[in-house]
Amino acid sequence: MRPKTKKILFLFTTLIFMFFYIPIIILMAFSFNDSKVGTVWTGFTFDWYKSLFSNDQIISAVTNSLIIAVITTLIATVFGTLAALAIHRYNFPGKKAFNFLFYIPVVIPDIIVAVALLALYGWLDITLGISTVFPGHVAITISYVMLVVIARLAGLDASLEEAAKDLGANEWQTFWKVTFPLIFPGVLAGALLAFTISLDEFVISYFTTGPGSDTLPVLVYSMVRLGVSPEINALSTIMVLLIVIMVVITGRKMRVSK
Amino acid sequence: MKHFVKLFLAIVLVLLLAACGSDDAGGSSDGELADKLYLFNWGEYMPQEVLDSFEEEFGVEVVYSTYSSNQEMLTKLNSGTVNYDIVVPTDYIVKRMINDDLLLELNMDNIPNFENIQSVFHERDFDPDNKFSVPYLYGSTGIAYNTTKIEGTPSYADLWNEAYAGHVTVQDDPRESLSMVLQTLGLPMNDPSEEDLQKAKEELAKLHPNLLAYDSSPSAQLISGEAWISHTYSGEAGIAMLENPDITYVLPEEGGELWMDNLVIPKTSENQYTAEVFINYLLEPEVSKQLSDAFPYSNPNQGALDLMSEEERTNAASYPPEDQLANAQWFEDLPPETIQTMNRLYKEVKVE
C-alpha cells in the first residue's frame, strides 16, 4: 500500500469512528455535569447518579425492560431455532408459505403489529400490563433469530451429522454433540439480536404497556417534555458500559468455541 | 391438518401469555377505598414523594404510569384495555372528552379542597360548571427575553425588530408559531380562516432573517446569551431564569397563550371514590406546593401560593400579573382540517 493511501484510509477510519462515538462520549461527559440544562458545562458532580438510583420510576422501567428482553430472548431463541431446523431439514406441504410467513414480521412496520395487538387486547378484554408486551416483542424477534440460524445451517456440512449417526449416536445425541455446537454461534448471535431489539423496541411497547409497566424507551420518551434530564445521561452511561462488557465477554466466548 | 393444529396452538400460546397479566383490581363502592388506584399522567409531572405519602396515609397503592401526549392517553383509554382511574388531559382535550361522553361527573362532596383553587380558574370555558375536571397545573406561552439586550417590555411585534436579527427564537410547532403570528396580526387564533392562515404564513416568512432558530426548548440558548428574545413556554423561561438572572418573562400585550392540565375520572374507572379522595389529597396546599416545587409550571392552588415565598409568588414566568393572565387566550380544539392546513403551511414556510 502506498503511504498516501494509507494516510487517507487512516483519516477516513478515524472520521467514521468519531462519527459513531463522539455523541456517546459527549452524553457520558454530560452525565457528570452540574447543570440541569444539557449544553453548558458548570462543574463535576455525581448527583445525577445518586438521584438516578433513588428514582423509583426509572429503576422500575429498567427492571421491566430487562425482564421483557430476557424472557423475549428465551422464547424467541428457542422457537426461532426450532423453526429454522424444521425448515432447513424437512420438506412438508406448505413449507414455502410457512417460510414466507416468517419473513413478514421483519418487513412489516412495527406500528401495524402494535395497533393490531392493541385492537386484539381490546376485543378480548385483556388488561394491559407487562405481559401484554411479550407477544409483540416475540413476534418480531423470532423471525430475526430464525433468519440468522438458517444462514448458519446453510453453511453446515451435512456429512458431519451423518458421520455421528454412523458411529452409533441417536438423533438426540447427534443434535447436542454435533449439530448444536456447530450452530451455536448462530444461535448466540440470534439471541443477542433479539435481546437488543427487545431492549430498545419503542413502538410496540408504547402501545402495549399498561399501568406500572412502562419500559425504559417509553419512559424516556415521556420524560423529554422538559428536555432530557441528566439522569438519563447517567443511565445511558451505565448501559453503554454494561453493553461493552457484554460484547467483550461474548467475543471471548465466541473465540473459545471456535 | 396437523399444521393448522400447530398454528392454533401458537395462537393460544400468545393469548395465554397476554392473559397472565389481566388480574383484576378490587373494585370499590362509595365510601370505601380500593386497594389500587390507576393513575395515568404526563411524564415528569408528579414527584414520587407525593405518591409515597398518599400510599402511606391512605393505604392505597398508586399504580403510576406516564404518557407523552394527549393523543397517546386517548388511544390507550379508547382501546378499552386499561381502566384508568385518573388521567390528566389538557384543557381543550377535556372539552373533547366531555363532548364524547368519556368522563364521569365528579362528586364534589368528596373534593372539598376544590375551594383552594384560585377563583380565576373556576368555571373555565372548557368545563363551565366545574362538573368534570379539577385544575392540576398550568402554564403559558409568551416571551422570554434578556433584559441587557432588549429595552423596555417587548411584545410579539418586537420579534420582527431588525435590531435583534439573529437572536430570535420561535416555537418549533405549527399551531404554536402560527397562533403567535395570528395574535400579532390581530386575527382570531382559535377560529382562523384559510385566508388568515395564509397571511400568517407570509408574516412568519418575513421573520426568517431575524431567526436564530425554530426551537421549542431554547433555555440553553437563552442562558448562553445567544438568544435575546424567545417565543417560548413559561416553563422553559423558568429554567433559563434559574441559571441566568438577566432573563425574564412576560405575557405580551397581544395576549399570549394559556394552557392547563386537569384531573379527570374516565367513565371506565371502577374506583371513583378512591380517585376523588386522591384528587382531594392533591389539592391540599402542602401537597400541591410539592408539585410546582418539583416542576417549572404554575400552580392554580391559592393555598399552595400562600405557602410560597414572596420571591416564588412573584416569579414572572410562573405567576404573571392578573391583568396579563386575563388578557391571554386559551387554546381551543380546532377542526382536523384547520390543523392539517396549519401543518402544511408551517412545513412550507420552513423550507422557504
UniProtKB/TrEMBL annotation, chain A:
<feature type="transmembrane region" description="Helical">
    <location>
        <begin position="9"/>
        <end position="32"/>
    </location>
</feature>
<feature type="transmembrane region" description="Helical">
    <location>
        <begin position="100"/>
        <end position="124"/>
    </location>
</feature>
<keyword id="KW-1133">Transmembrane helix</keyword>
<keyword id="KW-0812">Transmembrane</keyword>
<dbReference type="InterPro" id="IPR051789">
    <property type="entry name" value="Bact_Polyamine_Transport"/>
</dbReference>
<feature type="domain" description="ABC transmembrane type-1">
    <location>
        <begin position="62"/>
        <end position="250"/>
    </location>
</feature>
<dbReference type="Pfam" id="PF00528">
    <property type="entry name" value="BPD_transp_1"/>
</dbReference>
<feature type="transmembrane region" description="Helical">
    <location>
        <begin position="175"/>
        <end position="197"/>
    </location>
</feature>
<comment type="similarity">
    <text>Belongs to the binding-protein-dependent transport system permease family. CysTW subfamily.</text>
</comment>
<keyword id="KW-1003">Cell membrane</keyword>
<dbReference type="GO" id="GO:0055085">
    <property type="term" value="P:transmembrane transport"/>
</dbReference>
<feature type="transmembrane region" description="Helical">
    <location>
        <begin position="232"/>
        <end position="251"/>
    </location>
</feature>
<dbReference type="InterPro" id="IPR035906">
    <property type="entry name" value="MetI-like_sf"/>
</dbReference>
<protein>
    <submittedName>
        <fullName>Spermidine/putrescine transport system permease protein</fullName>
    </submittedName>
</protein>
<dbReference type="InterPro" id="IPR000515">
    <property type="entry name" value="MetI-like"/>
</dbReference>
<feature type="transmembrane region" description="Helical">
    <location>
        <begin position="66"/>
        <end position="88"/>
    </location>
</feature>
<dbReference type="GO" id="GO:0005886">
    <property type="term" value="C:plasma membrane"/>
</dbReference>
<keyword id="KW-0813">Transport</keyword>
<feature type="transmembrane region" description="Helical">
    <location>
        <begin position="136"/>
        <end position="154"/>
    </location>
</feature>
<keyword id="KW-0472">Membrane</keyword>
UniProtKB/TrEMBL annotation, chain B:
<dbReference type="InterPro" id="IPR001188">
    <property type="entry name" value="Sperm_putr-bd"/>
</dbReference>
<dbReference type="GO" id="GO:0015846">
    <property type="term" value="P:polyamine transport"/>
</dbReference>
<dbReference type="Pfam" id="PF13416">
    <property type="entry name" value="SBP_bac_8"/>
</dbReference>
<dbReference type="GO" id="GO:0042597">
    <property type="term" value="C:periplasmic space"/>
</dbReference>
<dbReference type="GO" id="GO:0019808">
    <property type="term" value="F:polyamine binding"/>
</dbReference>
<keyword id="KW-0574">Periplasm</keyword>
<feature type="binding site">
    <location>
        <position position="92"/>
    </location>
    <ligand>
        <name>spermidine</name>
    </ligand>
</feature>
<dbReference type="InterPro" id="IPR006059">
    <property type="entry name" value="SBP"/>
</dbReference>
<keyword id="KW-0813">Transport</keyword>
<protein>
    <submittedName>
        <fullName>Spermidine/putrescine transport system substrate-binding protein</fullName>
    </submittedName>
</protein>
<keyword id="KW-0732">Signal</keyword>
<feature type="binding site">
    <location>
        <begin position="173"/>
        <end position="176"/>
    </location>
    <ligand>
        <name>spermidine</name>
    </ligand>
</feature>
<feature type="binding site">
    <location>
        <position position="44"/>
    </location>
    <ligand>
        <name>spermidine</name>
    </ligand>
</feature>
<feature type="signal peptide">
    <location>
        <begin position="1"/>
        <end position="25"/>
    </location>
</feature>
